[in-house]
Design brief:
The protein has three helices and five strands, in the order ααβββαββ. The protein is an alpha+beta fold. It starts with a helix and ends with a strand. The relative contact order is 0.12. The mean pLDDT is about 75.
């Protein structure tokens, strides 16, 4: 029992020493500026550092399965899965607001 404790202590010491070097490297790594909110464009829009446009990324995933006896994935096929990804980009220009909207989806609506 004492041998196991010593083994665990040695393992913990080795893991902590091996993780010390990457931790020091992370301290020296440059940090990027955080994204800022764009309240004038609506909820969920963020301005990326160095950009004049505001972007919102949203989406959803829907999944379902028929769990009645004899109606599972083996009998009727795979479960129903649908998803959607939407990207909304807005930028102010001399002519007014320019909006780019892309929505990609599959499955039922």
């Amino acid at each position: 029992m004492a041998g196991q404790r010593i083994g665990w202590l040695l393992t913990a010491a080795l893991v902590s020493v091996s993780n010390a070097a990457p931790a020091r490297e992370l301290e020296k790594a440059p940090t990027a500026a955080a994204a800022m909110a764009c309240p004038s464009k609506g909820p969920g829009f963020m301005r990326l550092p160095g950009s004049a446009s505001c972007i919102r990324v949203s989406g959803r995933v829907i999944a379902g399965a028929d769990l009645r006896p004899g109606h599972g994935a083996g009998a009727a096929g795979p479960p129903a899965i649908a998803g959607r990804l939407a990207i909304d980009n807005r930028a102010d220009t001399d002519l007014g607001e320019v909006r780019t909207y892309v929505r990609i989806g599959n499955g039922r609506r």
